Amino acid sequence: MEAGADPVELLTPGEMGDADRRAIASGLRGSLLMERAGAAVAAAATRMTPAGARIAVLCGPGNNGGDGFVAARLLQENGYHVSVFLLGERQNLKGDASLAARGWTGEVRGAQRDFAYGHDLIIDALFGAGLDRPIEGEAASLIDGANESGLPILAVDLPSGVDGGSGAILGRAVMARESVTFFRYKPGHLLLPGRLLAGPITLADIGHDPGILEDIRPAAFHNDPAVWIDAFPRPMIDGHKYDRGHTVVVSGPLTGTGAARLAARAALRIGSGLVTVASPPDAIVANAAHLTAIMLTRMYEAEGLAEILADRRKNAVVIGPALGVGDAAISMVSAALEASAAAVVDADGLTSFAESPDALFMRIRNRAAPVVLTPHEGEFARLFPDLSIMASKLDRAREAALRSGAVVVLKGPDTVVAAPDGLGTIADNAPAYLATAGAGDVLAGIIGGLMAQGMAAFDAATAGVWMHGAAAARVGRGLIAEDIPEALPNLLSRLAD
Prior knowledge:
It is a single chain. The strands form two sheets. This protein has an eleven-stranded mixed sheet, with helices on both faces. A seven-stranded parallel sheet has the order 4-3-2-5-6-7-8, with helices on one face. Helix 10 packs parallel to helix 20. The longest helix is centred in the N-terminal third of the chain and has 19 residues, at 30-48. The chain contains 20 helices and 18 strands. The protein is an alpha/beta fold. Strand 17 and strand 18 (424-426) form a beta hairpin. The protein folds into two domains: 9-218, Rossmann fold (3-Layer(aba) Sandwich), CATH 3.40.50.10260; 225-496, 3-Layer(aba) Sandwich (UDP-N-acetylmuramoyl-L-alanine:D-glutamate ligase).
């Protein structure tokens, strides 16, 4: 999925159903929507197979199956050898799906586990994104047969068995080579494991008026520069470094200084006018030996940090990377949150509150300046142990943001950013080699550096996540955390074009 000119909304299955109903109410026939959807599927199938190939279309009992019947008819008209297999009885089809089935003049076979034998491609039109129950019985057997066939599979809307809202597998799921969806992506296209099962996704315009989104008001977006580019800080020709903010990064003890330096380097590279590492006395020499453009100041525990941040020109603080876990860290984070600076709390700064997360949340809610929390899944589970039962990563992050009063960055290959008001973004641009020591420290620094420049917390977190993934992808294999800040200038130049 490439960056576009307009933000790309994500629609839950319920919101997509609402979009369809609104489109039909505006005068667009449901059968026409289905015809266009089937045409988009047929077009994708022709790209995946040579002319005259044998295609098995596996249709379900609802509208997803109706899309499959349309695709089958169009493919047959274009010279493909098409077999249609139906889960259920043809006479039980309703509405537009029944109409689409009547347009298919070939045989409709009952679906068996070995239905795909002798074909070159499978079109999965069983259930799509709207499935809300575990797959079992005959449907599970059909999905197993499709996956075991070894044939490429083209999924209609979303691989059957993947929850469109969460990306979770509902008992069984099709492993698609590619997918075709309509009007807008669903969260399940971007969240794991759904994204892994969907393959490359074609987003087809089938006639919905984008204006209907003004009434639906979706609150989730694909994390793409279009979402945040208008808020991205741009230096002015007559500006100076003090206009671009001053980020303070809190260092851990002598054995844990590298994480703070990674965060500080990232904050400087992303544009913070000044960056200072606040270092405990035992680590001052180690930090001094590695820092050049980044400034260094001695910090005597929590009281010392409070004194440093009393200077309001220091308008952003990053705390947590290799800070150490325990009461001393709790005091340090508390001092940071009592200051007026925007704050990013990461790593040990989060884990230290595992026994008393409400104490952290109370401090966040009682301050005026914004806070971003950047947990990975393990740290998230320590702070929000009861939220692990929620299948949707987006929902977990939203509930955590509401509870804590902070913007929450729930990290991973499908990083979610959520605000207390429910706004959320999902990123899909993180390469596999971003899973390397120190990468999270760099992300914290990027976000802190953007907040120092005046970017709102949600925008800074969302932009930081995208920049982090894009920089890592630019470096490629062999990536180490130190490489990420050095890849940022090229990305910043591209954004300025």
